[in-house]
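Q: How would the structure tokens look for this protein?
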Amino acid sequence: MGRDDAALVRGDLLLEAVEGMDRPLFVLDEDWLFAYVNPAGARVLHRTVGELLGRGIWVEFPEAVGGPFEQLYRSVRRTGRADSTEAWFEPLQKWFRADAFLTGAGLVVSYDDVTARRRADDERVAAVAAREQAAAEAARAGREAEEAARHLMLLGDINLAMTSTYDTDEAVQRFAERVVPELADWCIVSVIDPDGTRRDVGRAHRDPALVADMHRYADLRVATNDVTAPVPRMLREPEPVVYAELTPEIVESMVPDAAAREVLAPLRPAAAAGFPLLARGEVIGGFTLVNGPERGAHTPAELRTAQIASRRAALALDNARLVSLNHQVAERLQLSLLSPPVQPDNLELVVRYRPATQGISIGGDWYDAFLQPDGDTVLVIGDVMGHDIEAAAAMGQIKTLVRAIAFDRQEEPAGLLARVDHALVGLAVPAMATAMVCRMEQDEPERAAGVRRLHWASAGHPDAMLLMPDGRVEDLTVPVGPPLGIGWLGARSGGEALLPDDSTLVLFTDGLFERRGLPLDDGRAQVRALLESSGGLTLTELCDRLLTEMVGEGVEDDVAVLAVRMHPGDVERPAEAGPEVLPSPFG
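A: Here is the predicted structure in token form.
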């Protein structure tokens, strides 16, 4: 919203507050722009309201610069004390009496053409009376304008607070905390779960000493409310319900349960108003505003603001529900595509996947492990660029392509990545991904020597790490090619290494070590240090420790880990590795 638009908005607020006033009046914002001018004021200044709104006073009336009117306005703004002046204004050939005072909506100036009063004593008396009346009206208008400004800020705060979280319970709690005490002494927000269950979730009270009493009543309210109570009524018929006065008879009719009324009594409800939360034609909840006897009935301005707040809150809450549902669908789809790895001969494979918990975006991280027809084991880990259902669906396509091409071609990982890249472009799969492919093989001489041969290649993916039997950790570096999905025509490079028995190969996505504010090298150094101190752990314990210490509970991004431990081939498969699991010949 531009400066002129903002001035017009504030002008609209003041227009409602001082509607019907004949007293010439205008309001100046902090930049000395006309935020509001009533018609009477515009006429006296020989202008129209439209010609003044949003315009600078010193630009429109430069003759006032340096004169008594400028001195008055700047003094009131500087000191905050109301004041007045009376002076001749040459351009209009008139004497003006100007009264100024400062409000939250701006500098309010009311003024009179006192030329005639100066010519006759009787007119002076009438002018004094008019000034007094106008001052009272302006003061009242100022109070109403301040209230309107506070309510406008409240609506913006509600919108920001509720749309910055996708946790529906947290969103309604934020709502309750914002409307109290501006609109009511206390508030309870109800939500309707997808199964139709009503829960009173958001709760706030202006008096800390009564918060516990409010919670005790809210815990009982759903079960004890009569059908005539505000929330059941507005959930049946989604219209506001207002009680300007809650008599004992009304309270008893709404809360027939004596025990619940006893819990309610310390809260001393004197007035209540309920508003449904209606989004896309569906009632998804409601909120109740309650005042004690000192505050009394809700004002018309409070009720108007509450009704606007109900619409904004309902939309924000419904959007949070839709995003959460989308998140759950994407997560379930992704998990369904992450199949358990094979467990060939004396290789032990452990996988871990942790979806993001901060924010709502499910990424496209994946892992895979399968056997080629010649018996070699292929390991894959990757990360599709994008989020939610689209990323999960793209991950499924890329994973299938890698499997199919690897099984058919049985070539080096670098060549496999090149074929997958070209297939993605040729089949117009709208996705890009980083990936690392490893192929583990072992011939008889290598088996006798207690080693396996690893071939690997990377398409923009973080290097894997190798934990040696003596506790050393090596980075398996290789020239990193561009991500899959761009149709790269250049050569892709691969690496080769020997993996001794009892060593552990760890592949992972960047969510394991990337943190906001933490250099990437420092994150990888933390992973390396954890591996170096984990030599005595089983592979399951090692993977769990990686997630616990590197990720914790607040996951900023999806994390996938694929770890392989090379057990000696001349001994029985260790019990902790679990049974050997090979792919079924029937798929």
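Residues 1-11 have pLDDT under 50 and may be disordered.

The radius of gyration is 36 Å.

Upvote if useful.
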